[in-house]
Amino acid sequence: MSTGIWHQIFNYDDYGQLLALVANSIVAAAVLGVVGGLISTFVMMRDLAFAVHGIAELSFAGAAAALLLGVNVVAGSLAGSVLAAAVIGALGVRVRDRNSAIGVLMPFGLGLGVLFLSLYKGRAANKFGLLTGQIVAVDTPQTAWLIGVSVVVLLALAVVWRPLTFASLDPDVAAARGVPVRALSPVFTLVLGLAVATTIQIVGALLVLALVVTPAAAATRVTASPRLIPLLSVLFAVTSVVGGILIALGGSVPISPYVTTIAFVIYLACRAAGAVRTRSGWARRPPAAVAD
Amino acid sequence: MTGPMIEHPGTIAPQAAPAVLSLTGAELRRGERVLWSGLDLELRGGEFIAVLGPNGAGKTSLLHAVLGQVPLAAGTLLIGGRPPRRGGDLIGYIPQQRAVAPHTPLRARDLVRLGVDGHRWGLPLGGRGLRRRIDELLTEVGAHAYADMPLGLLSGGEQQRVRIAQALATDPALLLCDEPLLSLDPHHQHAIVDLLDRRRRARGTAVLFVTHELNPVLPLVDRVLYLAGGRFRVGTPDEVMTSSVLSGLYGGQVEVVRAHGRYLIAGAPVPHHPDPTEGVPT
């Protein structure tokens, strides 16, 4: 029995053929890894982990509705995400208001999703996949959608990168320097919504945080450099999702446990490394240069 | 200005230079409430003005007006002879020291960099010139030793030094300081005040300094703007910090005692400090 379970989780017969079948998914996953890694640096800066979760639940409801209506699932999940992003943006500017708004929104979205799924008479694997991730569902037209939306997200991030960093980390001075701090907030929430909607296609609504929060959470443990954090974060996210898919090919369970486990292990390793670095004083200070 | 300063002694008398900041008949409202009105104030290069008054008197709102974030209800406000605009290079802004979360992804040099080009669109590329500029700014405030330390690992005093470097990034003609000494110990307060003093003497930077406590900056203060109860008074510390002036502003009996180069105030009807754990107000 135990070998049976083990065989379900890890089984590498016919690996080469499987790999060819999922080439699309791996490309899509790598792109989503880049998106997740970059967006997660801003999710950390802006303390939006909870918003990610809220957006994911509404995105799930949108995808479930699309499944029920027989329309494009990615489009449905985008619609749900954008709606959630708009509501979160409108309801709460302050962190406390925002979090309670998300807390109210999240179960509602999840409930809607459950309703749509229970009305859906199609394949059960489709239902489960929306929540916990799927890999087979990523066919060529969907890959095109995912990559298209990802490119939009990456371009938007490239344009707002500097002022968004300023507004996120140092809002008072950013406002004094003429950065449109308030306007950037809904812009970012919208971009985040797009990113979450695409990520859901791979890891599912419940596990989005592994790609949109964990990578930068891990990176900020080991460095404070604004250049290294996004690079490490992308590296972590791509490793988690592509690595997860490659390992998952050998089993019959969804890919998400592999992805989330890799992400979590990376996070633990970074925490340990960061603790060591902090204990040793982080960066060396030249001893002679005490200014006071 | 990054090049060397060329001095022409006598060519520009301080009084002939245009006012860095000038307010004429200025009125500011918050909703229906008039915070202050009829304010005339001229700030010249190198001048240090302390803005005092109880909470809610409109001190920070004055800074917001100067930054172009809040419009005046009446009167004019000119910065270097022009109306305020958001994000102008003429103004440097130093906020209160606030706790920085431990894993905030910013090192000292990154905070300064935000002051240099953080407001521009696009990716944070940037080369050797930018790095040299940041090093210069950090050296100027004596913060170069911890340039690569994460902000969250610096002491409050160190953070405020870095904040000054950030505010000086555009080589401003006017520094706006919003309680920059709050929550610093006297030793660090002194160091920060000293930095501001050196800057204004060397480069003629005017300083508008909002504070609860006059005493730490008293040696630098040219004039005081005291805002209270919708009224205000401008003058030298000796002119403003008197029992009769403050009693008039607060509309109640206020005693001001000057002792050992410090002002002590007793009986202000509106408390200066909402938090009783903070010390006796100036």
Automatic annotation (TrEMBL), chain A:
Its main location: membrane. The keyword DNA-binding does not apply. InterPro entries: ABC_BtuC-like, ABC_TroCD. Keywords: Membrane, Transmembrane, Transmembrane helix, Transport. Coiled coil: none annotated. It is found in: Cell membrane; Membrane. GO terms for biological process: transmembrane transport. It is a multi-pass membrane protein. GO terms for cellular component: ATP-binding cassette (ABC) transporter complex. Signal peptide: none annotated. The chain crosses the membrane at residues 20-43, 55-88, 100-122, 143-161, 187-216, 228-249, 255-276. Belongs to the ABC-3 integral membrane protein family. This is Metal ABC transporter permease.
